Structures are given as structure tokens and as C-alpha cells.
User: Fold these one by one.
Assistant:
Number 1:
Amino acid sequence: MLSVHELDLPDLNLLEPGSLATKQTAVDDARSKHWLARNPFGYVALRYEDCVAILRDRRFHSAAGLITQMAGLPEDHPMNRDKRESILSMEGPGHDRLRRLAAPAFTPMAAEKLRPFMRSVVNELVDGFAADGRCELVREVCEPYPIPIICELLGAPKEDWRLFSLWATDLLAIFNGNLIEDGPRIMAARYALDDYIGALIERRRSTPADDLLTALIAAESQGDRLSSDELLMMSEAVLVAGTDTTRNQLACAVALFAEHPDQWRLLADEPSLAQRAVEESMRVLGAVRGTARFASTDIEYHDVVFPKGTLVFPSFISANFDDRVWTDPQNFDITKPSASQPHLTFGSGIHYCLGANLARAELQEALPILARRLPDLAVDGQITWKPTTVGIWGPEHLPLRFTPTG
Ligand code: HEM
């Protein structure tokens, strides 16, 4: 059987400069030739079916834990010394146990309870500029929006929102590709968040409340519970995985709607389309464009061997446009019926986004409010995009104009 290294494959280097459209064309073109492409680090899985199969194959492990190793940090660097395994990088029974214990705190019902709060946060942010007829959506809505939600979810009071915002910014620097320089502030934020959450855990142990931390403390399965260290890790994971993703996804969705004014009007008139609007915009312009796995052993798949250690990147931006799953995939239309399969922007398999219910609720609440309060939406100048190499992607600046409302 052939090793994957011997295959004749299309090359797909998405790190090279180029416009969004050029990159999407390159991905679509590669997918029409083969189910796999070669990139400078390994291989890109292009078709929906194979992306799902790889994400569900337990022999392919998450590459999230390789970030510090790939950055070449020395052994005694605090990020290696105090390395904490995150849910995103765990595998096997340890990961199953964590998911089993945490899942009840992330149900649709848990997200449902926060919807009125989400609406009030969005409305308050829009109040700040609705009468001006202009805004920079990233700074004025997307950046601030998820922080109060995560704080409310964890049970942290309003006066501490600013602290969480600062910690989130520093913790998220882990994805900036400059760990040698950013390491100290990342670790300082982790220690400060640990102290804060540690104290909150103590308070919740004696006085339970209606929040995620209380639910995680109480989570119990077959006599098993989360330890204090695991509670700290989960809180950090929620802050890191649950802020920048939602921000960027909201900005991506609005940028897409700004190009489709008819769809924006439709959503304003029929807020019940919110659910379809979220799924369709996440399919067409997802903030997470793919993920990374490595072969934990020699793996045979599709009559090809992936030698142990091989990196494989399931490409969501490719899978989400696969015409074996979607009819007319290039067309953004929030009224078309759902496809037989979900989009892959929340991933698939054991690492499927734990916060998907919450993220969906946040977007389903924000989009119809924005559609109603920012009518006749248009881009005011030019959108600047983050480089497509970042893990969580979207507009850097999204200047908009619209007909002023009260
Ligand atoms: C639109 C917003 C979001 C998107 C696009 C998104 C996307 C993803 C994706 C693709 C993964 C899997 C990564 C992989 O397989 O390598 C993931 C995992 C995860 N997400 Fe989200 N996410 C979003 C919002 C959230 C929110 C709001 C939370 C928390 C409240 C959250 C918490 C997590 C956690 C804890 C994991 C790790 C799960 C595990 O490894 O078992 N996410 N997310």
C-alpha cells in the first residue's frame, strides 16, 4: 500500500498571500482533482465525507497540544513548565470523562436561559451608534459582545467584565504565532484568571448559584467529579474558545449579509429565519476555517498509509462547499432548506464544539436585532480581513453605514 508521501497530489499553500476569493478558488479547484492536497506541513483533507471521517477517527489526534512544541519553546519556558492539558488537546478516556462530566452544563436549555441577557447586551451596544448611521462593527459590537455572556455564564459580576476582557486578549495571544514574546503575558493572564476562578469556586462550593461554575462543580457521573484543577482548565477553555470565535463569526456573518442586502432585509422582516441565517452564514463564511490532526500511529485510510506523526488538516472551507452535500454551494441563501448534513464550522467527532449551543444562541439573538436596527446596510469603505493563516479568522475592521434608527 502506498504511503501518503508517495501520492501525486495537488499543492495547496494557503499561507501564500492572496485574496479571499483566490484562496477559495484554489481550495475548490484542488477538491475537484483529489480528496487530498499537499501543504508545507502535511496534507489537507478537502471533501466533506473525508473531513468527517478523519475527525471521527480516534487514531487521528488533536494537534492543539503541539502549539508550544511547534513554536520551539525551551523546556524550562513557563509555558512548558506549567503546561496544562486542555480539553482541546486531550484524547482517549481522559477526554471522554471530561466531556461526560461537562456536557450537562452546555445543553440547549443552559444556552436558552441566557437569551434575554444576550438581547439586552446587543441592544445596549447598538444604542451607542444606531442614530449615527455609521459604525465600526468589530470594535463596537463584535469585540465586546461575548465577554458579558461568558461572565454571566461563569457567574462573574458586571464590575469584573473589564478584567475578563483583558485576560481573554492576553490568553488569545497563544494563537498569534509569537510565543517567545507573548509567553509572559499569556502566563500572567492564566495565573490571574486561576486566582479569580479559584476564589469563585470556593464561594460557589458554599453558596451555589444558577451558573456554569456551579453546574460544573455539581457535575457528577458514577461517583466521579471534576477536580479543582479541571474546573480551572474548563473555565480557561470556555474563555479562550468562547470569545474570539463568536466575535469573528458574528463579524463574518454581517460582512456576508452586507454583500446580500436582500437577505438582510428578509432577516429583518422575518426574525424566525435567524436559525437558518446562522447555519448558512457559518457554512459560507466560517470563522474557523479548518483544524489540525496528527496520526497517532500508522493509519490506513482510503488505501493510503498515513505514517505516524503525519499532520492532516481537515479543511472546513473546502468541506462546506462540497457539492456532494450542498446543491448550489456558492449561493448564500437563508431561505433554502437545510442540507442533509450540518456545516463543519463547529467541527465533528469527539472535539465537536462544546459551546455550539451557546454560540448558536448568541448569533441567533444578535443577527435579527442588527438586521432590524441597521437597515439598508452597506460597507462604508473597505473591510480589512485578518490573515487567513490565523486559527480564528474574520474581519479586522468592518466599517458600515445604514439608515439611522432610534
Ligand atoms: C461561532 C462560534 C464558535 C465556533 C465557530 C467554534 C468552533 C469550534 C471548533 C471547530 C471546535 C473543534 C476544534 C477541533 O476539532 O480541533 C471547537 C471546540 C471547542 N469549543 Fe467552540 N466554537 C465556537 C464557540 C464556542 C463557545 C461560545 C464556547 C464556550 C462557551 C466554545 C467552547 C469550545 C470548547 C470547550 C471546545 C473543545 C471541545 C473538545 O475538545 O472536546 N466554543 N469549537
Number 2:
Amino acid sequence: MPELPEVETVRQTLQKQIIGKKITDIKIYYDRILENISATEFKKSLIGQTFKKMDRYGKYLFFILDTYTLIVHLRMEGKFFLKKIDDELNKHEHIVFILDDQISFRYHDTRKFGRMVVLKTIKKAEIMKYPALAKLGKEANDTHFTKEELYDKLKKKKEFIKGALLDQSIICGLGNIYVDEVCFMSKINPSTMANRLNLDDVGHLLDSSITVLAKAIKAGGTTIRSYTSSLGVTGLFQLELLVHDKENKPCPICGTIIKKEFVCGRGTYFCPKCQKIKGPKVIGITGSIATGKSVVTTYLKKQGYEVLDADEIVREEKKPQGLLYEKLIKVFSNQILDENGNINDQMLSRMVYHDEKMRKKINALIHPIVFTICEKKIAKSSAQIIFLSVPLLFEAGFDVLCDEIWCVYLQSDVQVDRLMKRNHITEEEAKQRIQIQMSQEEKCQKSTYIIDNSRELCYTIEQIQKILNK
Ligand SMILES: [Zn+2]
């Protein structure tokens, strides 16, 4: 799809090719391209008019004539060609202008999404009153667009910055390709909530927009897949793209592998290291098996804190409509299902605990899915602090999501005892399950705070409150 730089390239090219030429006839083969005017009126208005100037706003091209303005939006595939009058008509050429020097100027559109509007004015202020134009925001490369203005618009937006930058009423002229580039240059993750950005971040976005668009216009726009600009001009900016379309290639700044994710329904490219999601403070809660993480999270929830619980997410996604259900059946077959078609957790954990290879396999399947769900929930949260409870927080790499980590600790003998009672298992089984995890000591060492849950509940709560007060 042509974006602002491509449309600007078309404008500059046409400025050289058609200015001063008079329309002597018009042939219309598909009149639904015309948005606000009938085919008859279109011809009546424009035949006899001379092209005076080419202008543009965002992705709209303005053909300024003697007394009329023709506005064209190329949408997905619209292009213009100059051909000889008797050249054969291509089936995708829908509107043909015959010019006075015996040249035909043809509008070509394979998908027919492009639109033309005719207005009886040549004044820009009047043109901009046309409804589709009136609702557009300032242009992304407008040097008079201040960061304060953009910040005012973004601070009310509870959506990802990717979506906000694609919203033409907020900022005009950035499409999918350039939003990725602008976010990368500004070190902002496309999945960051727009209202979490500060004035400096917004300033970076505007500076990057101006830089990226100026570079792209100079290079003649970007050609990816179907789009080539009019008259055979092919843009070269794709040679300079930093992240867009670079999945699995190294980040040009830090070397981390560029990721592709769907954000706001659009294929989005970013460096996970340079572009961290700006979200609430994330406090990880972890601890070895049966140490009582839920005691801590239950208390935090009661205090009104937002808590993300990995076990709860797994439980939810294991349900028949969840993301893990089919995947687990594929690995373990139907034998893990109960008579109602639900996954039998006890059966599953028994199979996993006795088979290290299988345990690794199932963890490799579950962890990335839960990680992505947590990442998205954190990004979308409007809380100042969010707690993330993950039993295998270190083992599964969830620590990268956390600003600090609390480890719930239990004296070893108490832990064995509690696990035996909780899961109705023998001492030997309990010890075996504890052994396969990272040791409590190692977890404590890697954590910011340790909460000793070996004694009565009130002592545990006292410790939590002390940390919270800090
Ligand atoms: Zn990077």
C-alpha cells in the first residue's frame, strides 16, 4: 500500500509530467472510483480544465486545475500511467484522461479500492473541509506539529501506540511500514499503551517521523510486494528499512533477533531488547513447590493489587477453548482427558513428574504461550504495580519481565510436610518433586526480597507489609 513518501513521489513525478496540460476528453470504464460525483458531472466539470499544480495532504493527492480540484486516494493499488492515445487499454485502467498533446493519462487500479473526488474550488483551506480530509490530524512530517500537541492526543488513548500512530486522525501519513520504523528509532515497543508515553517519548516519535519520512521521500518511497509508484518509478527506501520486514535478522543496534508479532491486526516488527514495553512496575512472585505463593498473592489481591497468576492462566488455557488444549492432546493423546473431555490435571502431572524428557517438552510448549499472555496483560494494564506469580519464574525466563522479585521461602522439612499433605503423596514422592526444581537457596539468591512462610500467617503478612512500605 502506498504510504506518504510513495504518494509524495507520485506527486513530484506528476508535477513534472502533466502540469500545463489540458484535459480534452475523459473515458470512464468503472465509475465507482468516483466518490462524490456522477460520471457525467465528472466529465462536464473537468473537460477543458488545465492541470496547474500538484499538491498533497497525507496520502491524498490534489490535482489543482483552473477552477476545480481533483482529489485522489490511491488506497491499496492505485497508480497513474502516461501512455499513447492508441495504446491498448489495460483491463485495470478505469479512468482515462486525454490530454491536449495527444497523450492519455490513465488511472490503473487492480483492486479498485482507490477513490476520486471533485471539488469546485482550488483553495487549500476549502479543499481541507471535505469530510474525509477534515478529520485528518496534522501530518507526521509537519515541523510545526509540537510534541505537546501529540502528547495531548495520546494521553487519552487506551490503545497500543502502534494503533494510535496508524490512526490518521491523530497523526496523518504514517502507515504500517513507517510506524514500525518510527517506533524502532524512538526505542518504543509498538505494544506499549499510548497513554504510558511521556512527553520525551512523544518528542522522539515526532523527530523520528520527520527523519524517516524525509529519508523515504528522498529515496522515492518504499516498494514492498505489490506497490510500485506511478510511471515506472520504483522506490528504494526498502534498502534502508531498519526493522520492517526483517524478522529473524539481527537488530542493527544491538544484534538481538528482530521479532514479528501481530499488533492491532498488523504484522509488526521490533527489537525485543531495544524496544521494551513501557508498562507498570512488575514484581515477580516465585518460590519452590508448596512454599505458599498463593498465601502471598491472596493477601495482595485483598489489598487491591493486580495479580497475574501463571498457574491460573495455564488452567484457563487448558480448557477446551484455550490455547493449550489441542497442543497438549497432540503430545499426550486422548489419555489425558476425563470422561467430559477435560484435561485431567492429576493424570498430566503424574506423567510429567516421572519423565524428564516429557517434562521439558511440555514446559517448552506451555511457557512461551503463558509468557506472551503475561506480556500482553502487563502492557494493557493501567495499574502502577502489577504482581506476576510464576512457580518456575527463573527456570522459564519470566524474570526478564520483572523489575524486582520476591521469593517465598519455607524451611525444608516444613516444605516436604506441606507438599505431602497438599498432594496426598508419600515423603519420597514429595522429595522427588522438590528435587527436580531449582533449589530454594538459588531462588532466594536471585530474588530482591525473601518472604519466610514457615511460621503462622500473621508473620508472613508482616513481612509483606514491610516490603510494601519500602
Ligand atoms: Zn536491538
Number 3:
Amino acid sequence: MFKFFSESFDNFKKKISNTASTLVGNVVESVSEEEEFSEFVLDDMEDLLIGADLGVNYAAELVDNLRNQDKIKPSDVKNYLKNEFEKVLSNAGSNELGYDNNGLNIYFITGVNGVGKTTLIGKLAYKFKNEGKKVLIAAGDTFRAAAEEQLDIWSKRAGADIVRRDKADPASVVYEAIQKAKNENYDVILVDTAGRLQNKYNLMEELKKIKSVIDKNAPESLRECMLVLDANTGQNGLQQAKVFAEAVNLTSVALTKLDGSAKGAIVLAVAKEMKLPVKLVGVGEKMEDLRNFNSDEFIQALFE
Ligand SMILES: Nc1nc2c(ncn2[C@@H]2O[C@H](COP(=O)(O)OP(=O)(O)O)[C@@H](O)[C@H]2O)c(=O)[nH]1
Ligand SMILES: [Mg+2]
């Protein structure tokens, strides 16, 4: 069950109930009473899966498996989807957030503007502080002054320390944070980054530079290179994932704003297309609104 910040399974289930009804409920309702998988039924099913933001290719694949076969009946469609989703999630890798008790742990947090990177860092700082860790935040979004202010507020709330240098090169901020962390024995560095996709080339170069500073100065310490996705962006998120994956070697995804979103199917789309596991989920704007993602619970909440 949830490893930190107690929330009942029922609450989690409520938060993804919109996803459950668009992704599972509607499909089961439209298919399960049918006699057979006619082209008409399959087309309808495909449209619903695409509408739930599973992605065109993945939706087509799921539907194609049902064509010209007689093992799976329309009345089994719920089980069929459940098995398929379980497979995809387990192929994408472990949901467990990397952590090494015997060394420095760096979490490199990337994603486009507004997805919730800075908020996630505040939540993570709070989580690690609660676990008794020494936490340093590197304010690597030096582009917007407001971004650093916001991070300052989060660090104070969480009781974490921060390295910020207004308008400095983000890579140099991260360099300084690594030196400080080594000298003062920090357990965790959370690296915030900019997300201005309007200038994609420069942003990707900036991220690569930060990554190489980490690789050079703390080669064993990069615990997660995480992409933050807003659950509401659906398939757009998949496109974003591809751009970031090309620049830095992503290890996992954090999905924010899952509260209320009907597009939680992006978890499956990212697992399927990018082979990236979701490790963290944001379910609100408060410091406590962070959950470890657990595939089994996600499946259970979708299908129960
Ligand atoms: N409902 C909800 N809002 C969130 C969540 N995470 C972040 N936000 C909100 O999204 C907005 C943008 O967040 P921010 O952290 O500044 O995004 P950044 O530009 O990626 O750093 C803010 O208004 C946050 O309060 C979440 O899990 N749920
Ligand atoms: Mg930010």
C-alpha cells in the first residue's frame, strides 16, 4: 500500500475515477453485451480507447488482437484489457523510486512549463525531510525570477536547503549544489529545471549540460532522471516525453494533476511507447499530495 502520506485506497480510487470510467467503464459498457467482435463493435472500441488517450497505435493494437480469434469473447473484454495493461506496466520496469542509503541521491526533474516540476520538488523535499534525510534543492530554473521565488517558498515549507543564483547558468548552480552536498554530507539533491519549450533547442542543450555536470562531478549519484507530465495533456505528453528522452536519458515519469483528470491512460501510453515506468503521482497542490505510483493499485483502481 502507500508508503508515505497515508491515503486510503478508496481516496486514490476516487481521484482516478474519471480515468477509470473513460478507459474501462465506457469500453466495457459498449462491448461486453455484444455477441461477437464485429467490425462495428471493434471500431467503436477503438474510438473509445483513442478518446481515453491511449494513443492511436496502442488502441489499434489492442483492437487488432481481438479480430479473427475466438478465444476472447466480448463478455471477457474487461479481463482482456486488465491483462494487457498489467503486461505493459510490468514491461516498463519497477515503480520504485531509486534511493541509495549509502550515498548522495540526485533527482534531475525535467518537463515543460506548468506541468508541476517545482511543486513536485517541494513535495519530494517534504517527503525526504519526513524520512529524516538531509535535502538540498538546486534552483536550476534561473530563467524566470518568479520560479526561484516559488522554489524558495517550497524549500522553507519543507525545511530543505537551497542553492540559488539569480540569472546564473543552471549548470553552474547544479555544480555548486553538488560541491555543497559533498562537503556537507547531504543525502538528496533535487534539481529543478526550466521548461520553456518555445525555445526547444536551447532548453535541450541546457538540460544536456546539467546532465553532464552531474555525470562528471557525481557519477554514481544520479538516481532518477525524471520527466514530469501533466495527466491532463494526454497524448501531448507522449510527444513531450520523446523530446526529453532524446536529450537526457530518462529513467522514469512523474504524473501530476491526476486528481480529476480523465486522461490517466497516459500512464499506459508512456509505458507502452517509451518503456518508462511512472514512479510518482501528484494528486493535488499541497505538499502532502504526492503518492508512490504502484501498478497493481492503479490496475485495481481502474478495474474494481
Ligand atoms: N491539481 C493539481 N495541481 C498541481 C499539481 N502539481 C502542480 N500543480 C499546480 O500546477 C501549477 C504549475 O506548477 P509548477 O510546479 O509551477 O510547474 P512547473 O512550471 O513545471 O514548475 C501550479 O499552480 C501548481 O499548484 C497536482 O498534482 N495537482
Ligand atoms: Mg517551475
Number 4:
Amino acid sequence: MSFIFPARIRNELNRFEDRTGIPITLIFNLLVLLLSPNPLVKAAALIGAIMSGVETHVKKGSRKFTLPASAWNLIDQFIEENNFPYRRNYNKIITYRDANLASDTTGMTFQNRIYLQSIPSNNKELSEFFHEYVHTFQYHRYGQIVFIPVYVGEYLFELVRQRNAQEAYENIEFEDQAFDWEERFLDWLNARGIWVHKVRPS
Ligand SMILES: [Zn+2]
């Protein structure tokens, strides 16, 4: 949406979102869903509306944070050395801490926005961040309109087949890829030593 409206209108819309808790993207998508005669556009708008609803829930109470440069340097170096299949600049990634996630969920990604329980402070947590980072590339390559239906469709298919939610989740192709890179990054980090980021209490 950022490319549609000038900054002044965008600020007004953001203020509306802050006051009411209703995301602008949700309203925008619902309008497109109602008004567009094109079924493909309708489908994209429906997915957009659902995802912005989910994201609003996850975002509740979270705060933006900046991943330290020492962490990005390690990520860059790993990517360079390990035939990572995606190429994109990370400076568009927006990171949030204290996200409203289930206690067993370390993070969740919506396009270029990564929501985490807490700021990564050791090798394990940094590799879990890397897992979410892999999802940003998947979103970017396939687009939300492909990524979400494939992700959810595969999950439901596996759920019916295996009758086990955890197994089904781990069998999603996008997750399998993210877990694989998470593991490789953790091994790489551990082989190099320990990365520790001191989290300041707030
Ligand atoms: Zn994942």
C-alpha cells in the first residue's frame, strides 16, 4: 500500500489503525474483495484480509527492534559460504519482539516482517531467527497468493494423511526447507564458537 498513498495520507491511515486497532490492509482487502469482478483478484484479497487479521493478533503488544550488526554479519557470511538459494537485501526486513505468540512458537513471519517471542541472544535463538528469515525469501519469491495456499494446503493434506499436527507442520515443504537451513546455520555457528548478544533489560 505504501506506493499508493503520499506520506501525509499514509500517516493519517496509520493513526486510524493505531486508534481503532483495525488494520488498513484488512479494510483495503475487504473492499477489493467486494468490488473486484476478477476471481483471482478476489482470491488474493481474501488471503490478504485473512493474513492481515492474523498478523494484527500476532502484533498485539509487540515492539520493533533492530537485530545487532554482529548477527547480520554472521548471517551474511553464512549465506556467502553455503550456496544459500535466495538473494535479497535484508535491510527491508522489519523485526518485532514480544509478539503475541503461543508459548511453544518462537517466531512467525508475514512477508518481510518477522515477529519473535524475544530478541535472539544465543546461537540457538539466532538460528531460529534465521528460520524465519528463510520464510521472508519464500514469501518474496512466490508471493503471498501462492505461498499461503500452498502452505495451508500442504498442512491440511498432511494432517489428514498423518493425523498428527506436529508431523503435518514439519512436512510442509516451506517448513522443511526453513528447518533444514536453520539446522545448517546452527551447526555453522556452533563450529565457529558462541555468538552471544546481551539483551538489555527494559
Ligand atoms: Zn517456519
